[in-house]
Amino acid sequence: MSDYILEMNKISKEFPGVKALSDVNFKVERGEIHFLVGENGAGKSTLMKVLSGVYPHGTYSGDIVLDSKVQKFEKIADSVHAGIGIIYQELALFPDLSVYENIFAGNEIKRGATIDWNQTIVQAKSMLAKVGLDVNPETLIKDLGVGKQQLVEIAKALSKNVRLLILDEPTAALNENDSENLLNLLRELKKQGITSIMISHKLKEVIAVADKATILRDGRTICTLDASKGELSERVIIKNMVGREIEDIYPKRAKKSFGENILEVKNWSAYDAKLARTVVKEVNLHVKKGEIIGIAGLMGSGRTEFALSIFGNPRAYRLKGEMLVNGKPATFRHTSHAIEAGMAYVTEDRKGDGLFLIQDIRRNLTAANLRGVASRGVLNANEEIQVANSYKDSLYIKAPSIEQLVGNLSGGNQQKVSLGKWLFVGPKLLILDEPTRGIDVGAKFEIYTIMNKLIDEGMSIIMISSELGEVLGMSDRVYVMAEGRIKGELSAQEADQEQIMHLATQ
Amino acid sequence: MNLNNAVQEARQPQPTLLKEAGTLLKSNIREYGMYIALVVIIAVFSIMTDGLFISSRNISNLIDATGYIAVLAVGMTLVIVIRHIDLSVGYAAGFMGALAALLMVKNGVPVYLTILIVLVLGIVIGMFNGVLVASVGIPAFVSSLAAMLIFRGALQQVLEKTGTISIANEHFNALGNGYVPEITEVGGLKLLSLILGLVVILLYIYFEFQNRRNKQKYNFEVLSGGMFAAKLVFISAIIAYITWILAGYEGFSWTAIIMVLVVVIYHFLTTKTVLGRHIYAVGSNPEAAHLSGISVKKITYIVFGSMGLLSALSGILFTARMQSAAPTAGTLFELDAIAAAYVGGVSAAGGVGKVTGSIIGAIVMASLTNGMNLLGVGISYQYMIRGGVLAAAVIFDVMTRKKRG
Question: CB–CB of A368 and B292 under 8 A?
Fold first, then answer.
């Protein structure tokens, strides 16, 4: 009989139109380090949000059993009270407050009606000692590196008498040294009797510290592998992560020879001063005329940052390296220069930075090329309406009219508007960042068909995608990115899911 | 905005004129609501003052008193559309009005050159604000608050030695008090103003017909024939009525003509040009605008530059109206302009708001003040009532937006 601290039985969770979790079973033994592994969108984060009360009892089905007692968390505070502490990828610290203020934020030590700061500092010191962090508790959070900030988060969780610690991709933003420290700390906490659940994409870590690993895929539990039984190996994990049959929903296009290089970058690096981190590292890559290249990799691997860095660099990264457009060196100081040079970028976050949600379809479609429907700066409304209607038809945008506000469209139709906006620019190189995320199968197929048509017309496409099926089904060549670097280049024929996932999880 | 929709919906069942009007009203409730509010305010005051409010003399005065706030409201609309604010416009107007007086009276600069200098200076000062906001990254609230203090000081400094400067130049003062010259009177009405009004009506009808023909050429939805005629008659009647009222006093004032010109130019800029569309794009989503190749900085410079230009114009109109430059000129203009813009349907979230709406907003607020003055309502109550109207307008705005989701 195993001693389970946590049992999650038959957990199902639905969002409008999507079943995020279906009958997930997840059991964690007391005192172990248990990894949760799976592709982007497999349901790991949703499962942890169910556990921590972000999604309150009643919005999901199934049972959460903690220490043999069924729990019904109504809010996050309930799960904290029960001894669950969760640390998200985006740290929830106050950068302008000190370490000790952060550790006891929301959990202040009081004497009467006021905060006992002396006691707070004393307690904070002992928490810091527990996580092995040797800093003055009066240091401001913003003066610490990410690795140390993470330790403060853990100290904060420990101060609430956590028994079950959940870490969501804690090492994604850490360098190797800090990662190693963190993993050692987990081993140390294990000795003190604290159970940990950790989400990670780095399989080497999983192999190194996991007692068990549960693999999720498409919202279902695939299997739980036990290290003590010798079941944990990179090959087995990858096989279970990607084991989905690839359905043949990818329209074929006539194979033809490719032209000259339309884009080439050499030793391309981008440093983000705000994050104080190099987000793109020495990337070498080229795209030929008439080619679709896929950039595979997990979220946060630097794919979007790479795309932005070549598309006029709107986030003002510090760039190094060389970019050649049509064989000639090019530097773009603004997105408008990149557009003039024949580039277009359909963003990953269409609602956040792709579309004007409070404007109608017509105004969105022409936003990037208003001069195309204007003469001497004055718009020709009738011509604009004609252009918009023609894109509405050719891209199968389903809406009563082009006067419809884009915010009221479905995800698939929004994506088509976003695509149409860039097609009207008449680009030679189209960058698609997660072109089919969150849209239904029918709309996906339509977008693939449009992509093939564009290639036939002589355009080139860079497709950034986390969806392996799509990368394999649509690309002529695949680059795999991880940690800001290109980890490998594969031809469409030789690439398969396992290979890509192997490179992406290094 | 949803005109086509409304028309389509109205067409599906057998369209009746009334039904079409109903759907039009429903889908444009925010915009038409303001016009209705204005009509109600005018009607109520006219009844309560036994027609004094609607008299030629009072309406003429009302329009002249609105002018210097209305031009500020036009500029403020664009500033708020791109998610900023400019608190400095009141004292900027006061300062530039004083500068104009100083140049003319103390330095003998010719009047038209003075106006040109002041307007150009307004653009430069506005652009400087734009640079602080867009390139240095100071929140507009703070940078314009600083500018407001600086202009207030500058205004007092300029007038310190001289005190209030009286202006004797008739050409200049005519901008705030004068009327278009008259040829002759016909039955107590000014002929030239009548002709002007007629020209405006004919131009309006011509443009509407041209627009309709164009749409039909492209096979687009248009209003039904009956509705179109009704609209033409209605708008023409309003213009004719205003003309008739004004012609009964002194005719069109220069202030009214300048105000109409500013509105027409800005309405054209915002609705028919690439620049205007870029301004609204930056307002509704700056990141998406940047990624669409629009220079957010450039748009910010331009919008603040235009605000500076209109502040200068406002200062000129006010100084001309007062026939003097006083150290207190411009006090609270900025808040009147901001209130007019919000009453006129500008959204604080950015990207939404029409120049024409803000003008109506300015007229609504001025009508309230004027009407309450006629009724002898105490100044303390006037402030409270105007505050209440501002809050009510924005509440109405938020509610109708929520409903449309």
Answer: yes
Residues of A in contact with B287 (CB under 8 A): 314, 352-353
Whether residue A230 sits in one domain with residue A271: no
Q: Final residue of a domain: which of A217, A242, A267? A: A242
A355 and B3: CB-CB below 8 Å?
no
Identify the DSSP state of A121: H
User: Do A163 and A101 have their domain in common?
Assistant: yes
Is residue A397, in this structure, part of any structural domain at all?
no
Whether this model's ipTM surpasses 0.90 comes out as: no
Mutation for B interface: A358, A360, A376, A408, most B CBs within 10 A: A358
Q: Tell me, yes or no, if B215 comes closer than 8 A to chain A by beta carbon.
A: yes
Please give the residue range of the domain that contains residue A29. 4-242
CATH of the domain at A272: 3.40.50.300
> Same domain for A193 and A297?
no
Cα B287 to Cα B10, B267, B291, B382, distances in angstroms? 37, 25, 6, 42
Q: Which residue of B has its CA nearest to A381?
A: B272
Domain boundary among A180, A210, A242: A242
Count of A–B CB contacts within 8 Å? 94
Chain B residues 126-155 with CB within 8 Å of chain A: none
pLDDT in tens, chain A (506 residues): 578 999 999 999 988 767 889 899 999 999 999 999 988 778 888 899 999 999 999 899 999 999 889 999 998 889 988 999 998 877 789 989 999 999 998 888 888 889 999 999 999 999 999 888 889 999 999 888 888 898 999 999 889 889 999 998 888 777 778 888 889 999 999 998 899 999 988 888 899 999 999 999 888 999 999 988 888 888 888 888 886 666 667 888 877 778 899 999 999 999 998 877 899 999 999 999 999 999 998 888 899 999 999 999 999 999 999 999 999 999 999 999 999 999 999 998 888 899 999 999 999 999 999 999 999 999 998 899 999 999 999 999 988 889 889 988 888 899 999 999 999 999 999 999 999 887 877 888 889 999 999 999 999 999 999 888 889 889 999 999 998 999 999 988 888 888 898 898 87
CA-nearest residue to A354 within chain B is B288
Question: What is the pairing mode between strands A318-325 and A343-346?
Answer: unpaired
Match domain B29-178+274-404 to its CATH number in 2.30.30, 3.30.420, 1.10.3470, 3.30.70: 1.10.3470
Query: Chain A contacts of B291, Cβ < 8 Å?
Result: 311, 314, 335, 345, 347, 353-354
Report the residue from B2, B214, B273 with minimal CB separation from A377: B273
A216 and A333 assigned to the same domain: no
